[in-house]
Amino acid sequence: MRVLVTGGAGFIGSHVVDALLEAGHAPLIVDVVDASAHGADPEWVPPEVPLLRLDVRDPATWPQALDGADAVCHLAAKVGLGVDFADAPDYVSVNDSGTVEMLTAMHRIGWRGRLVLSSSMVVYGEGSYECDSHGPVRPGPRAVADLDAGRFEPPCPLCGRDLRPGLVGESAPVDPRNVYAATKLHQEHLCAAFGREHDVPVTSLRYHNVYGSRMPRDTPYAGVASLFRSRLAAGADPLVFEDGGQRRDFVHVTDVARANVLALTSDSPWDGPLNVASGRPVTLLEMAGMLALADGRGRRPRVTGSYRLGDVRHVTADPTEAARRIGFRARVTPEDGMRRFAHDPLREPCRGS
Ligand code: UD1
To answer: How close is the Cα of 287 to the center of ligand 1, in Å?
Structure first.
């Protein structure tokens, strides 16, 4: 199958390309090869894979990119939290307008095939919580006074009591809390609208915290795994915010790549969102400990008690729907994955670009 992979020179996209090749498919990459995400050259593009260095926002990209494509994995995006709201136009331009250009081009040529969108668990906002008295509840953003006082667990919005965090399923209400999250949800909605009109199945893969080789090193756009790994590489202790008890699901990039291939090749296509997660949630302190141990140079996680306003406390996925719909089950445990990640090469972005 000829598969167009947008963002195929990037961290996750390059692993999707590898997984497609391994499964006997023929990937084609569209990637602008942005110097702020890549080094000068995209080192991991296999020589046999065509790379079109084109911008997803440019309408002229698409006739060439879609020519002969049986399926599309759409990963090209600006990711992470960014620096501040000044980043908003870039997020909206790359993620929303880029997606709209792709869909409009598909519309024009009456493109049919499976479309797999790289989405994110950030669309959920906080994870899922239960109160002993009120059942499932949705806590809002945490108050500064609580965070300053070291009260990191969000309280029940109805009675203020402690909550039990649970696993978030795909039917959970969405609550995007930053610009990136808003664009990811918008991408899902845009693709779904196109899919309904053209009878194209759209699988939106909601990745949890992805890590692994080729991850960009510590930029304002990087996730915590990269930040911890970069500090260890520099001989420093990983800095764990809050009390280290916040929970995430770290899913290895090779599992994420496999989920893409499964979404393209499952017997019946799945039209809708799916969590892509390891199914093995860990606390940030546990994860930092695994990484520091695997690093092997005697560094230890340092719990700072400081916090980032806007961070959610716990968000961990229910992985059962992805298993049922496309047969995806993660293979890499957090222990094995972190052991590998401690020594994997990171991607060196060009500073100041
Ligand atoms: C991250 C990504 C998000 C992505 C999602 C799923 C970023 C900034 N966030 O969300 O874009 O969609 O995973 O893959 O890329 N922390 C520390 N020390 C640090 C940095 C962070 O303890 O040096 C803590 C944070 O306070 C937070 C947790 O680590 O509790 C996770 O942080 P991070 O990876 O940045 O964001 P997520 O909310 O998990």
So the answer is: 12
336 CB-near residues (< 8 Å, 6+ apart):
none
Residue 248: CB within 6 Å of ligand 1?
Answer: yes
Residue 289's closest CA among 301, 298, 307, 271?
Answer: 301
Angstrom distance (rounded) from CA 49 to CA 222:
27
Query: Do residues 169 and 83 lie in contact, with contact meaning Cβ atoms separated by under 8 Å?
Result: no
Separation of alpha carbons 219 and 135, rounded Å: 39
User: pLDDT tens digit string along 35-63?
Assistant: 766 666 778 899 999 999 999 999 999 99
Please identify, by atom number, the ligand 1 atom nearest to the C-alpha of residue 308. Answer: 26
pTM score, whole prediction:
0.95
Q: Does residue 141's CB lie within 6 angstroms of at least one atom of ligand 1?
A: no
Work out the angle between the directed axes of helices 98-109 and 179-198 (0-180°, nearest 10).
10
The closest alpha carbon to 168, from 133, 138, 131, belongs to: 138
Ligand 1 centroid from CA 32, angstroms? 25
